[in-house]
């Protein structure tokens, strides 16, 4: 490095950078508070003098005179306009205004509502905040001086008043003698007063005994009025509900009357149809036996015919040559007899069809009965709703009748209750009749299902009629065959064919008659069931008609009662508002009366207690007036003695000053700091030394290797020796030159030792970051500088600094250097504390020196040694023959 003049020059300049940084900064703020007499402050006096206790009071003028003598600031007495322009044009840091009522307010000290003296000042903090702070401190001291001056004026005035008090004492002694004379008269009047108090107390005690029952009666009256108001509200609410229900019932009354009329008409039609149905079914039932008998005979004849035809067919087919004409003739005779039976059966079927037509006609009339009964069910549903409404109306009206005390209203409500109960009884009777109608509806449903089978019976009878017609035609054909039997031998072939047809027709006839007989039996069973149901319907028709008539009559009475009740409730509703208003007014008035009664009772009790106390204390009053009479003379003597003592007091101006400023402050320095520069020096010296280490690690090529192949420890030792030597020179130069230029140091060895240790710690930290991480490490070192600027506590106490900096405070090296340097410059922290701070700095140095060695070993093993992002900048330094000071000649 000695052979590279540029590098050597850089090394020398770097060593003096901390000193230059410190001297320029510290000298700029070396003693700002020692030159405050150059800080311009404008003073505007608008105060007006006033008279106070016979003296002229001009506090503003006195203050201006004091300021002209004061050299703490550069006080300039100017006009209001000049001060305003000077503040706007940055000439003045502060403008002090003494208002026009300054002295006037000072004279209000003895008033009932004294006003404070207000001294106004306006600052321009943007021009310079420290200037504002200095101005505020000066204003605080100025305010204290004003207080002392005004208090001194007050004290002087009070001293004069004390002298006047001495004269007043003499006059008071004369008055005390007159008081003694008046006390004799007072004693006589007191005796008369005591006698009157006893009489008044007797009357008040009697009043107290009489007023006690009043509270109980008023309380009961208020409670009863509240209950009355509540009952009236319930009553009016019930009347409203009753009126709404009755209005709805009245609106539905017309529909109910129409429904009951329709029901009565339908019931009459229904009973008429039931009678006709019963008559027709009875006729059918009477003919059922003949119909079943004829059907049985017809079925039996058809069976015989089928058997004969089968036998005939078998005979013809088995032996045409040996025909038994006698048997054939016998069969023909049986066929003739069967034809007469067919005539009887034909007559029975005709009668059955006639009866079935009549039954169908009656069945069509019965189809209207279910619709009439459905009207009855609808009416029953309406009656159920009416029953529930009437029951609710009866209960509500009965409750309202119990709660009201008005006779007319109660009579109207009782009438409503009676009519509602009558309607309920009528509806219950109608309910029984409607239940019977519902049972008839069930019977009608069963009968209707039986009558629906009439159509199938009609079809069956039609089929039977067709079968009989075919049988009649067959028998007629057989009778024709009877005449031709004589020619039978010649016509055997035709006979064979005829017998086959006869057998087939007879079988068909027998099958049809079996079906017809089963249908006739089913039909006659249905006719019997229908006849029985019709008889039951006819038996219940009278009850149904009577119930419908009763229902119509009861509904008419019910609707009339509903209309009358609706009219009555309308009148009740109209009167409800007035009734509620009156009840509420009564309750409010009685509650107010009840609320006042305790006050009355309490007042009477207090009056009785007071009069009793007057009576009890009357003897003391009499004794007191006697003592007053005796003490009046003594008072006169004491006042004369006091006047003599007051007049003997002769206060001076020193006493007035003592009133104005009774205390003084005595300051003792535990440690002495001469000025602001000495206070800020530990902070600035530490910052400058850290900046010097940063610049060194930017300028000096710490990553360059003089000789490759050697151990990393040799590389580490060479760089560390240069760095530590450089920072030691920085610390000694910075501290020594600052002492030569005026920095007063109390403990010189401790001062320099702390500077050197902080320089070593800073160099170790910055060199480790720069060596390990190159430019990013240097950036981290700069960030660490910024953190130490705010978190080391170099300017303001940490207690007034934000929480973040308090958290990192004890982890920053500069914290310990500032504390050590403060103790070295002005003392006050203790040698043991400085030893602790220096130990922390030494520990930081050792830790980061070891980390630097580890880092350089890593860089060499991974072939990063000698490579730096600053190489291009460092080419300006030229070739370096001896990087480590060991005069190595072999370079690679």
Order of helices and strands: HEEEHEHEHEHHHHHHHHHHHHHHH
Apparent shape: flat
Sheet having the most strands: 4 strands, mixed
Distance between the termini: 18 Å
GO cellular component, one term: membrane
Membrane topology: Multi-pass membrane protein
InterPro entries: Phage_infect_YhgE_C (IPR017501), Phage_infect_YhgE_N (IPR017500), T7SS_ABC-Transporter (IPR051328), xxxLxxG_rpt (IPR023908)
Subcellular location: Membrane
Protein model, in words:
This is YhgE/Pip domain-containing protein. Its main location: membrane. One of its GO terms (cellular component) is membrane. Keywords: Membrane, Transmembrane, Transmembrane helix. By secondary structure, the protein is an all-alpha fold. The protein is about 80% helix and about 5% strand. The strands form two sheets. It has a four-stranded mixed β-sheet with strand order 4-1-5-6, with helices on both faces. Strands 2-3 form a two-stranded antiparallel ribbon. Strand 2 and strand 3 form a beta hairpin. Helix 1 runs parallel beside helix 13 and helix 12 packs parallel to helix 14. The longest helix is centred in the N-terminal third of the chain and has 190 residues. The two termini are about 20 Å apart.
């Amino acid at each position: 490095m000695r052979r590279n003049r540029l590098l050597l020059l850089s090394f020398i300049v770097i060593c003096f950078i901390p000193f230059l940084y410190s001297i320029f900064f510290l000298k700029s703020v070396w003693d700002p508070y020692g030159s405050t007499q150059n800080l311009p402050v404008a003073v505007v006096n608008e105060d007006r003098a006033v008279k106070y206790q016979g003296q002229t009071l001009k506090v503003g003028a006195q203050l201006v005179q004091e300021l002209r003598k004061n050299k703490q600031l550069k006080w300039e007495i100017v006009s209001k306009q000049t001060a305003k322009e000077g503040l706007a044009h940055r000439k003045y840091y502060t403008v002090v205004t003494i208002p026009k009522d300054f002295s006037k307010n000072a004279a209000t000290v003895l008033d009932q509502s004294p006003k404070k003296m207000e001294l106004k000042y306006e600052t321009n903090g943007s021009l310079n905040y420290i200037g504002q702070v200095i101005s505020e401190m000066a204003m605080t001291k100025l305010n204290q001086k004003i207080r002392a001056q005004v208090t001194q004026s007050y004290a002087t005035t009070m001293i004069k008043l004390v002298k006047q008090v001495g004269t007043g004492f003499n006059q008071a002694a004369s008055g005390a003698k007159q008081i003694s004379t008046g006390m004799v008269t007072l004693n006589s009047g007191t005796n008369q007063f005591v006698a009157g108090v006893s009489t008044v107390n007797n009357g008040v005690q009697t009043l107290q005994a009489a007023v006690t029952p009043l509270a109980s009666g008023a309380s009961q009256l208020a409670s009863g009025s509240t209950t009355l108001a509540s009952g009236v509200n319930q009553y009016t609410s019930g009347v409203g509900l009753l009126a709404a229900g009755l209005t709805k019932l009245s609106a539905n009354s017309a529909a109910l009357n129409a429904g009951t009329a329709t029901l009565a008409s339908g019931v009459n039609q229904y009973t008429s149809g039931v009678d006709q149905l019963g008559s027709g079914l009875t006729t059918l039932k009477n003919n059922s036996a003949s119909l079943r008998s004829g059907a049985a005979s017809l079925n039996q004849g058809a069976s015989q015919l089928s058997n004969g035809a089968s036998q005939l067919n078998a005979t013809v087919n088995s032996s045409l040559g040996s025909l038994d004409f006698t048997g054939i003739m016998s069969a023909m005779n049986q066929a003739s007899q069967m034809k007469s039976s067919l005539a009887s059966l034909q007559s029975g079927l005709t009668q059955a069809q006639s009866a079935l037509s009549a039954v169908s006609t009656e069945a069509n009339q019965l189809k209207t009965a279910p619709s009439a009964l459905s009207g009855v069910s609808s009416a029953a549903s309406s009656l159920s709703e009416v029953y529930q409404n009437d029951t609710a109306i009866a209960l509500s009206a009965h409750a309202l009748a119990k709660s009201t005390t008005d006779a007319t209203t109660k009579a109207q409500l009782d009438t409503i209750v009676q009519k509602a109960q009558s309607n309920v009884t009528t509806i219950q009777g109608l309910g029984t009749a409607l239940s019977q109608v519902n049972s008839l509806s069930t019977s009608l449903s069963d009968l209707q299902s039986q009558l629906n089978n009439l159509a199938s019976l009609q079809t069956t009878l039609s089929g039977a009629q067709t079968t009989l017609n075919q049988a009649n035609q067959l028998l007629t054909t057989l009778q024709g065959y009877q005449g031709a039997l004589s020619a039978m031998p010649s016509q055997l072939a035709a006979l064979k064919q005829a017998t086959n047809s006869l057998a087939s027709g007879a079988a068909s006839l027998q099958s049809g008659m079996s079906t017809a007989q089963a249908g006739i039996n089913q039909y006659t069973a249905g006719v019997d069931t229908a006849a029985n149901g019709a008889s039951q319907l006819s038996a219940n028709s009278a009850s149904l008609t009577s119930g419908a008539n009763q229902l119509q009559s009861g509904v008419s009475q019910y609707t009339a009662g509903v209309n009358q009740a609706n009219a009555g409730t309308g009148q009740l509703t109209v009167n409800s508002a007035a009734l509620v208003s009156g009840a509420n007014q009564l309750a409010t008035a009685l509650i107010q009366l009840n609320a006042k009664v305790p006050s009355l009772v309490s007042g009477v009790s207090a009056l009785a207690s007071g009069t009793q106390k007057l009576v009890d204390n009357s003897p003391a009053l009499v004794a007191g007036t006697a003592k007053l009479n005796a003490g009046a003379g003594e008072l006169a003597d004491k006042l004369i003695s006091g006047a003599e003592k007051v007049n003997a007091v002769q206060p001076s101006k020193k006493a007035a000053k003592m009133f104005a400023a009774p205390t003084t402050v005595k300051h003792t320095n535990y440690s002495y700091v001469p000025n602001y520069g000495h206070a800020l020096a530990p902070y600035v010296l530490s910052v400058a030394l850290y900046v010097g280490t940063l610049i060194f690690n930017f300028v000096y090529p710490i990553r360059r290797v003089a000789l490759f192949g050697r151990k990393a420890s040799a590389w580490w030792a060479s760089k560390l020796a240069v760095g530590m030597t450089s920072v030691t020179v920085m610390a000694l130069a910075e501290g020594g030159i600052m002492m030569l230029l005026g920095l007063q140091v109390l403990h010189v060895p401790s001062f320099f030792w702390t500077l050197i240790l902080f320089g070593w710690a800073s160099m170790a930290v910055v060199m480790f970051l720069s060596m390990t991480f190159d430019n990013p490490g240097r950036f981290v070192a700069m960030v660490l500088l910024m953190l130490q600027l705010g978190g080391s506590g170099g300017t303001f106490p940490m207690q007034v600094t934000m929480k973040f900096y308090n958290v990192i405070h004890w982890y920053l090296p500069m914290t310990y250097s500032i504390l050590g340097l403060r103790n070295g410059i002005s003392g006050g922290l203790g040698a043991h504390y400085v030893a602790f701070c220096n130990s922390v700095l030494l520990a930081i140095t050792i830790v980061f020196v070891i980390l630097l060695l580890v880092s350089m070993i890593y860089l060499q093993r991974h072939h990063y040694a000698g490579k730096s992002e600053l190489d291009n900048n460092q080419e300006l330094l030229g070739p370096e023959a001896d990087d480590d000071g060991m005069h190595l000649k072999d370079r690679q």
